[in-house]
Prior knowledge:
Shape: globular
Radius of gyration: 44 Å
Mean pLDDT: 80
Domain Helicase C-terminal: 417-589
Low-confidence stretches: 1-49, 475-479, 592-603, 732-743, 759-770, 887-893, 963-971, 1109-1119, 1121-1139, 1498-1502
Largest sheet: 7 strands, mixed
Pfam family, one: Helicase_C
CATH class of the domain at 268-293 and 329-561: Alpha Beta
Domain RNase III: 996-1166, 1208-1393
Helix content: 40-55%
Oligomer: single chain
Family: Belongs to the helicase family. Dicer subfamily.
Amino acid sequence: MSTSINGTENNSVSESTLSSSSSPSSVPPESKSRSKSKSKMTLDRASPIAHTRGYQQEMLEESLRNNIIIAMDTGSGKTHIAVLRLKIEAEREMRKISWFLAPTVALCEQQHEVIDASLPVSVGLITGSLEPDQWKDDALWRRTLEKRRVVVSTPQVLLDALHHGYIVLGRDIGLLIFDEAHHATDKHPYNCIMQDFYLELPPRMRRIVRPMIMGLTASPIFGGNVDKAFEMIEKNLDSIIRAPRLHREELSQFVHKPVFKHVMYNSPDSNPQFSTNLASLQYAVGELNIEDDPYVHSLQRQLAKATPESREWKRVDQRLSKTIQKEDTFTHKGLKDFLRTGEAILQDVGAWAADWYVWKVLNKARMALDPLQSEMMPSWRDREKEYLRGIVNNIHVLEPSYQEDDIIDDVSDKVVALIECLLTEKEESESRNDRYSGLVFVERRDVVLALTEVLRNHPVTKDAFQVDLLVGTSESSRRHSFLDITRHIVKQSQDKTLMDFRIGEKNLIVSTAVAEEGIDVQACGCVIRWDPPSNMASWAQSRGRARQRHSTFTLMFEQGSASRRDVEKWENLEREMVARYNDPLRDMLLAKDDDGLGEEDGNKLEFRVESTGALLTLQSAIPHLNHFCAVMPSRDHVDFRPIYELDPPDYPIGWHSIAHRSTALVNPYQGPWRATVTLPRSLPDQVRVFTTREPQATKRAAYQFVAFETYLALYRNGLLSDHLLPLTDHEMEQADEEIEKMVGLANVSGQMDPWTPEFQRESESPSASASEEDWFYAELTIGDLPPLHLITRNRQNVWTEEDGPILYLPTGENMQVTLRPLGSIDQLADPAWFIESAREYTFMLFSSINGSRMELDRRDFPYLFHPADGSRDDTWVECLESLQEESEYPIDGYNMNALDFGMRYEFPDDISMVREGGRFGKPYQFVEWQWEELDEDEMETLVERYGEVLVEYPLLKVRSFHPRTNFLIVLLSQDETRYAFILPSVIRAMSMALTTQSLRKNLFGEVSPLCVIPDDLLTVAITAPVSQERQNYQRLETLGDTVLKFVVVTQLLAEYPTWPEGYLTKRKDQAVSNSRLARENFDRRIFQWIIRDRMLGKKWKPQYEGARFQPETSTTGGPEFVDAEQASTKAQKKKKKKSKNSEQMSKKVLADVIESLIGAAYLTGGLDLGCECVKFFGLGLRNWLPLSQRVESLIQAVREPDELPPQVLYVERILDYTFTRKLLLVEALTHPTYQQNLGTVSYERLEFLGDSILDMVCTDYLYRAEGKNYSPGHMHMRKSAMVNAHMLAFLCLRASTDVSAEMPRPDAVNGEIRLRQDNKTIYLEQCLFHSSSKVLEEQRMTLRRFEMRQEEIEYGLKEDDIFPWAALTRLQAPKFLSDMVESIIGAVFLDSEGNFDVIRRVLRELGFMEILEHIVRDNVDVMHPVSRVALWASKKGKKVTYLSQEEKGNVSCSVLLDEEPLEGATETDVKHGKRTFEEVRFAAAEKATKILGIRTNPSKTK
Length: 1502
């Protein structure tokens, strides 16, 4: 081997530290003169000060006048100039932001760190690695523009935002900086931003104008003709290439170019090497047969099943031919790539490196193929793994020897030359007392791995150098290449490697091009290129890493190669390039050509949405279409990617089966082509299949044109937003963004006061007082008590015996309350006396029991009572009048010493109440005067209570009154005493009734169809649980929630006939969300009618006029919603200043009341009135129509099928229902994988409808279940047991019909062939239309499990009193079986024109209704066994755990109570996947419930 090292001394580079920046306040933007002084600029910050050099100041000032591309060597301080420019822009342009673009994520992160540390403004970072959701989040971009002054991003992020109209270039951005600006060519995002958006803008003369441009580069061109390259890059960036001219000498002082050297090495052919491990790999790859590949087998099976000459058949035929011809399956391509890489390493690095690489990769592959290591390469499919495992296990390799002689003998001449160069450079560096640092650039990632391993172990280098590596990284789990396994060979992160290099722990880095641009590797003393640079930019970038004084830049050349001549050419180009942009004459020439900048081809095909500026181009159409399909809801076994087909196809039909295949492609077709794209079957035909209108010269163009036309059609059919994004991504998530901020609690005004006069409520002024004549009275009758007059400020409604409240007394007595309005009191002879008398009478009644809580000098009650006959018993009147004359306090007039009272009135027996002690003592019910002496026991009791006292007769014999809450008892005169106890409950009932009347009048109005909802239902619907009334809205809310979802589903399905299920689900979820419902409540101020105050019997006191007056607050500012933490903080701050007119209410309560009102409407007028109620609230939906019209419009869209598959007849027999519109049933049976065209979409839309119908049927049945009165929790548990994937799949699996047919068979006696009856059972699940082998396999395996467990499940569902959760789970039923049932129910609903009776009949045929009835009738315990055991353990104070074990292919689970196994509560099963662990856990829990005798209380409904 011969080696030569030659070099020439040049200036080296010294990088200026850019930790801060400043702006030249002395240089205004419009300045026309150039500063010739080396002015210094600093930032007023605590960080280290970076001084601005003269050449940097020169470039900064030039950038303020013109768009420029700054061309300076790496390390000369280009980033510092950019920072200064950003600072000036942030200070002078407040309406727009500056955008800094860098081509890689690593470079973005590095530059963001520098800019953010240098500028006193907010600097944002957005890259694909941060998942900014740039496809769909308008709010993200709005916040970016509002909160940031500078944004750093990769160019694709900005390009996507511009394409979707989130950012308008001329409106939002004032400065664009392109780092590594030489990339702005061809289809690079840099160039697309300029061509598609920048050049469309007018010059900088109006508000929406082109932003200023600054480019940064060490080499403006990649090579070729300098003039043409300059013209292209300058035209693309609308800029002029500039380098310092006035301060060129200063620049040379800071830019130290390295000593250029080269190393020659012999060709590998001169000393060929042999790798044993590589030879084993070569043999294995040579034995591969593409016909054995599982992917080929899969395609062959698909072709055999497809209908000949159908579109699917042709598509699979082409795919099979292409796969066989290219041999590019996962396994074959991966192993061939592996072999080629190994061969390259053998040639480049040597036999030892090749042996190590093959051994290492195969070891990693075996680990990845281990079934227990599935997380290592999750994208590798099971069949691929199985096939690959068989091949890899037959490749016999040995670990390479680490003996020194073995390594020395088996490295290439190139490695020897590299080692000699490294040792020489290290020796020279250390001779100058410098610390050695080196960087070796290598093109191929795998060569980096192998070369690093050699240098770490070679006896000459392992102690002399601390070696590490840098390669590009990616953590994507979607990577699907065999050699992706090498990612697991790299042991240390980039950041750790760079840090070790900076602190001297490592002194030699072997790197791919990732360190050329994109990672801030500190200045090195030695840079070596293992491979020659591919272009001038790469040469300049890598050379720029050698910028220490006395640094060297070494290129390695093979003897006799042309690479050395290329470098000489690049050196000459560089000199010519520098001369060009330093030539002042260029300025004058460019000035003449300015008018031509930005002109472009007028034939560019594009579509722009005027309202947003979103742009669709040929280049963006394919990724847009791919994204549209990718965001559709995923389903098992369904590939939603668009399918592209060429016309004519690449291969002759059946090419894969031709014996001599090569002769069939002698003269391949050269174009032009048409292309067809097919979208997922969940889309209707009019937006599913498209073909290019005109043939295109290239395949790529054909694909682009058909993608463009397809995406445009999707937009015009309402499947895309005005930002040209899928609706699920943008509009639906944006529509209620403000609502979604309503987390937790809402600040609302308090509950309305029903006693406040209506005119006063409407005036919103508590000062508006009523006169004495503004009263209305009515006759109030309570059971058998004498009637009273009730006097209020508002008119009363009639209470009859049919609709008046009933008071339930503890004695078991019920008292009917009636009310007969009599009109205004102004018709009375003396209204003023009447009111005054009523006030005194009311005060007397209330104060007799509640006086301790009353204000004794107030009589201004909002409700008054008076004897209906006009007067009281004279005896009591005289008694009270005399007492009041003697009393110091008004209330004392109703209390008198018992002995004095008895002596004065001869101990009467009609006393009703006795107090103990003073006037606020506890009241007792009078029994009798006791004249008989107490016996010993009674005397002992008396002494224990009162102590030693003198007993004088008669004694008072009394009993305690009953507690009083919503029922009535007695006081004063016998009747008046009872009134005193009963009237608070009557007042409560009247208060709730008045609240209901107010809501009806003010919310619905007098002509609304909703006015027919009865008062009792309406009252329940607005009564919150916190009120502790006997009935509240919870049951109605559960029912209303189901009605709401069904109504919304039906409306959406008809309103958007082209929307796939994913769009519909998203829109439905938005419409029925608690946030939306809470907003509807708040907007209509329904919260003020929600009854949430409690009646506390022992603390009750009468209300005074104005005491609860709650004026309505203005809604101009919108509701204030806060989360729990904020609510707690605000509560503490306002604890002493709490407003009586404001309170907090949870968002759920606001939403629940809306749903309960819908439930009340449904109970009153069925689905029609329920729909009317939903329509009243709007929910952000448009075009509300009656359900019958919606169903009719859906039916009208169904056409007659051309022909019907036999499965339709079978399913009709299974359901015992004959379809009028049979295409509905075809749709219900069509799986998304089905490739044949039966004239309909797949079943998802009908499944969407059927799910809501099942909920409706089940919830309605449970709500009305006779004698149950189920609470919401119990309704939910029972509905969840009936409507879930396991249960519906079971119903699907067992549904079947027998089909008879005559088949020719031999006679048993004489062998003569005769036609005989042959019965066959057809199962519902077999009638699914699909084109997936995986679906077929799932069906077979699930049917087998069903046959094993059917008897157990049938018993559990029909006879057992515990629901068979575990057995159902063990079916492992795929979701498409339950989808089938739901879609069929949806089809029946539409075909029967919305007839729920037909639905119930079909469900009974499927067995659904029978199981539901059994659950209700026999009180089946439906709680999940795991929840049941946990609840029992919590009540018993025990700790329950589940111990799962795997052994010999079996999985077992045992229930432990307080760490001790529960005998008999263990379940074991054969492992058939991860789900087995869950199944045995459920089964063990179910056993535990039976052993412990646990079950929920089936009779408990609340």
